[in-house]
Specification:
By secondary structure, this protein is mainly α. It has a single domain, classed as AhpD-like. Helix content is 66%, strand content 0%. Helix 4 packs across helix 9. The protein is globular and about 45 Å long. The termini are far apart.
């Protein structure tokens, strides 16, 4: 944990509160972090901006303050579009998204709010906007990760670091 905290301090200039809050169960936190890092903090089939976009959409739907703020900051940085990121954090439908991101957000919303109603047919709009099977699977995994993470963050009352509020703003 100390090594991870030091790396965060070095790269970000602060230790994210998620690290501090979950340090009580270090082994479980590190297992979660390894999967989170593998899924979100790497080059993948989706861009970093796309993965952070999905994180913000899901976190808004779940009303997870910590993740809306922290991943909203990352979305501002990766997208270079603070206005869009802020709008997505409130209501993705009013963010003026292109068709691809609209389809991604609509799928993320259904999987988040109505998972028992999701069918294979719900994948078709994603294919129609050009997502392939690798991208679709990664999208599903990111949505699943953030649904779980949002619940843990909300349940233990994590508060966003102050530094996130100014991050990625001109």
């Amino acid at each position: 944990m100390a090594k991870l905290w030091g790396k965060a301090e070095e790269n970000m200039g602060f230790v994210p509160n998620v690290f501090k809050a979950q340090a009580y169960n270090g082994e479980q936190f590190l297992a979660w972090w390894r999967y989170f890092n593998l899924l979100v903090n790497k080059e993948g089939h989706l861009s970093n901006a796309d993965r952070e976009f999905l994180a913000v959409v899901v976190s808004n739907l779940n009303r997870c303050t910590y993740c809306c703020i922290s991943h909203g900051a990352a979305l501002r940085e990766y997208s270079g579009d603070a206005r869009m990121a802020d709008l997505v954090a409130v209501n993705w439908r009013q963010a003026g998204l292109d068709e691809r991101r609209q389809a991604m957000a609509a799928y993320a919303e259904k999987l988040t709010l109505h998972p028992a109603e999701v069918t294979q047919a719900d994948l078709q709009p994603l294919r129609e906007v050009g997502l392939d099977d690798h991208e679709i699977l990664e999208l599903v995994q990111v949505v699943g990760m953030f649904n779980m993470t949002n619940r843990v963050s909300t349940a233990i009352g994590m508060v966003p670091n102050e530094e996130y509020h100014s991050q990625g703003r001109p």
